[in-house]
Amino acid sequence: MTASYSAHRVVVVGGGVFGVSSALQLARLGVGVTLVTQGGFADGASGRSLSWLNSSRMRSAAYHQLRMIGIDRYRTLAARHTDATWLRFDGGLTWDADDAGNGIVAAHAHERSIGYDARLLSKDDVAAVTPGVDARAITTKGAIFNPGEGWVDLPSLIDLLLAEFAALGGRQVAHAGRTKVDLAGGRVVGVSTVEAGRFEADALLLATGPAVPSIVAEVGITIPDATPISLLVKTKPVDHALRAVLNTPRVAIRPTPTGALVLDSGWSEEEVVTRPDGTYAVQDSTVQGLLDEASAVLEGNPRLVLDSYGVGPKPIPLDGEPVFGPLQGIPNYHVAFSHSGATLGLIAGELLAQEIASGEPHPLLASFRAARFAPK
Fold this sequence. Notes:
By secondary structure, this protein is α+β, with helices and mostly antiparallel strands. It has 9 helices and 22 strands. The protein folds into 2 domains: 9-47 and 155-224 and 318-373, FAD/NAD(P)-binding domain (3-Layer(bba) Sandwich), CATH 3.50.50.60; 87-150 and 226-313, D-Amino Acid Oxidase, Chain A, domain 2 (2-Layer Sandwich), CATH 3.30.9. The protein has helices spanning 17-28, 61-80, 104-113, 126-129, 154-167, 212-216, 266-271, 284-297, 341-358, and strands spanning 9-13, 32-36, 52-53, 87-88, 92-94, 119-121, 143-146, 150-152, 171-173, 179-184, 187-193, 197-200, 203-206, 229-235, 245-247, 252-255, 261-264, 273-274, 280-281, 306-313, 323-327, 330-337. The strands form 5 sheets. The protein has an 8-stranded mixed beta sheet, sandwiched between helices. A hairpin with a 2-residue loop joins strand 10 (179-184) and strand 11. Helix 1 packs parallel to helix 5 and helix 2 packs across helix 9. The longest helix is centred in the N-terminal third of the chain and has 20 residues, at 61-80. The two termini are 17 Å apart.
């Protein structure tokens, strides 16, 4: 799959973590980059992400390896920004519902078998390991604590990356409106935007989150899509001791730099209603339900007050694995489409930039090509 082009002018479409990270890495390699986004930066999925840095539970070996390298890149970043309040490694705590589907013991055994740092705690052990949790909410089978996990505030990270991108001479074009990919002779030659005109390109990276499958479908490429509508609720700042990310049967919680909490869950996603005009309706009872579920697992059961919420598509390929790299038959048309935007944000940008700048495929991305979905 070695490409034969030389990328001197690259257009990156997408203002989330994949687009911004890749654009910066390309600029570091000396490539001329134009970063284009339909709206503002971090105003899509990256702006409403739980942003849990992890590789817990079970997934393919290649995906686990990539996630672990992704976490390593964040540790390097944390070492350079020791005063950052937007990037923390205080661990993750997870437990399952008290029913026949409880797989916490099996999950712990799997994580230990692959060398993932994991401790199986009884409910009585939790307080001594990680603060801020109401142990009464944990089932008798216990909880897994993963001390190497963490979280990142993606808008803060994106601001940091954009500042360096600008310093390196990268061009930023926000609020460009809908983008159309221009092809000639089976290659990308540029992109046209509704509000900002046309940009010529030797190569393109499409990193538009949930819009990727529909855009590549215009050139006959199918990326099976399981994108749901997500809901991320943010509380007002609250006095609490929680430091770890919590992943519980009814709510996931992470701290924020301001002392607020962000919350999401699978059940709340299912209650979001998509209107005929494509907008979304969120019931007050859904939001209050998330706040109540979060209070129930926090020490002292504090009263949580809504600050804001974000709702919209959360990109997830149908098979759960990322889609990175060039499209089959169009070697200078690259894509980034994945659920784990936070964990993979830095490493995906690094590896995609290397591929685009050099035309050489990276072995770490070999399992994640769109070509795996092509008819056999």
